[in-house]
Amino acid sequence: MNKIAIVGFGGAGYNAAKEARSVDPEAIIDVYSDTNIGPYNPMLTTYYVKGAIPYEALFPFGPLEEIAKELNLHFHGNQPVTGLEPSEKALIFADGSRKQYDNILISTGASAVMPPIPGLDLPGVFKMRTAADAVALKKMLEAGKVGSCLVIGASWVGIKVVEDMVAYRVPCTLVDGAKWMFYVAAFEKTAKRAQQDLEAKGVPVYCEQMLDHIEREENGQLTAVMQNGRRFSADTVAVCIGVRMNVGFLKGSGIEMNRGVLVDKTMRTNYEGIYAAGDCCEALDIQSGTHRNIGVWFNANKQGQVAGANMAGRHMEFDANVLVNLAHYLDYDFISIGDISACKPEDEVYEYEDHKYYIRAVKNSEGIKCINMIGSAGSNGVVKNAFIKAIESKHAGLDIKTICFLREKGFPDSFIDYLGGTSID
Ligand SMILES: Cc1cc2nc3c(=O)[nH]c(=O)nc-3n(C[C@H](O)[C@H](O)[C@H](O)COP(=O)(O)OP(=O)(O)OC[C@H]3O[C@@H](n4cnc5c(N)ncnc54)[C@H](O)[C@@H]3O)c2cc1C
Question: 20 to 30 A Cα–Cα from 300, which one of 19, 92, 263, 291?
């Protein structure tokens, strides 16, 4: 009988268990989690904070007890895995005990980075990643304990915290150490436009502000002191400066890692029978041909499913990994598809703007490198698939369904042509 262990029970872990169970009804499936709550969607946490969804909606797969029953799995809550011995396929626990399996999935996700900067441990300084973080923030906001907020990190998570503050009418300021917002994914021009649009909604943005430390003032407020000496004061400070993959427990195990665990298209690591999926792994990025962590909900779910199938004995591959970053906030949306770091000053720039869209993209003789879009929510998936198709085959072109969809959504012919389509009348 196939003995399967799943370490970490988020979107990746859940989909692995579901797929493994559907392939092998007899398999023994043990799930280990460092919490005692069921799999939830972290991207919904800020929607819960602002009251757009109830707490239960964080759990898209249903209550833990029902999941465990339906999938016939053994859930070991509050039991973090502290080590792994790949040659024995053994999990190691805090008390030193070990347990062997035929197949192991590492799906431990990522955590918010809280670097050892003085003052980050002061009351009123918070992060946003887990359901517990969301519950704590919501409690604070509902109790009226937040008169103002400084959000450090003008990127995917920080912008969602800004949205929560606006929903509670809490004045807030956004700062970032980088030259512009969404720095790892936005062209300067796109970012400057997003900044202007955000400031028009009443949220001041200051870039090139690198945090030195946070101190408590006599009046009780927190002051974030920047390396350039500038000071920003508020009742609370949200630290949203990135994530770290939860792979520390694999150090010295022999499992190949960069920032995350390296996997092939089947989500297998360098050891037979050991897989990784979701935010903790780096899968093959078809644009660069190298391993990349692309921590998005779709990838976590799909990669989990692929790993689950392979662990249970059915071959499956995850193949279309490209960089995608999206932010949906305050009735505004920004998406970046592709690798901005691959763009060179001499590359050809495409730019389009009308009342609905702002699009900026870069290509060279090898093809499209990166697309930034504002206002394209609802079409992102279709544009992403067109981008992937263009990378897989430069001359593939767009199918008629995609062309019609893009036209219907009001994209200009010039952009449809740019993606490889042919305009139709
Ligand atoms: C605020 C926010 C906004 C986001 N917005 C978007 C968005 O707009 N679009 C999008 O696609 N994605 C978004 N994401 C990212 C998306 O939520 C993640 O990519 C996805 O949920 C990752 O799933 P996962 O299963 O890999 O990891 P997780 O959901 O993090 O699950 C991993 C689990 O493993 C547990 N664990 C860790 N270490 C151990 C251990 N040693 N032993 C046992 N258990 C362990 C953790 O506690 C956790 O429960 C957002 C995330 C956040 C936080």
Answer: 92
Q: Is the pLDDT assigned to residue 338 strictly greater than 70?
A: yes
Other Cβ atoms closer than 10 A to 202: 11
Question: Which pTM value belongs to this model?
Answer: 0.94
CATH superfamily of 125-241: FAD/NAD(P)-binding domain (3.50.50.60)
Distant-in-sequence, close-in-space partners of 152: CB < 8 Å, separation ≥ 6: 158, 175, 176, 211, 224, 237, 238, 239, 240, 241
Residue 203, ligand 1, Cβ within 6 A: no
From the CB of 338, is ligand 1 less than 6 Å away?
Answer: no
Instruction: Just give the CATH number of 331-419.
Output: 3.30.390.30
Q: Is 314 in the pocket of ligand 1 (CB under 6 A)?
A: no
Asked if the domains at 125-241 and 331-419 fall in one CATH topology, the answer is: no
Joined together, the tokens standing for residue 179 give: 């030259």
Please tell me the residue having the least CA distance from ligand 1 atom 15.
296
Between 78 and 145, name the one with better pLDDT. Answer: 78
DSSP 8-state secondary structure symbol assigned to residue 170: -
What are the extents of the domains in the chain? 3-111+244-311, 125-241, 331-419
Give 113-127 pLDDT, tens digit per residue.
Answer: 999 999 999 999 999
Q: For 20-62, how does the pLDDT look when each residue is reduced to its tens digit (9 = 90+)?
A: 999 999 999 999 999 999 999 999 999 999 999 999 999 999 9
What is the CATH class of 3-111+244-311?
Answer: alpha beta
> Which ligand 1 atom sits closest to the C-alpha of 326?
8
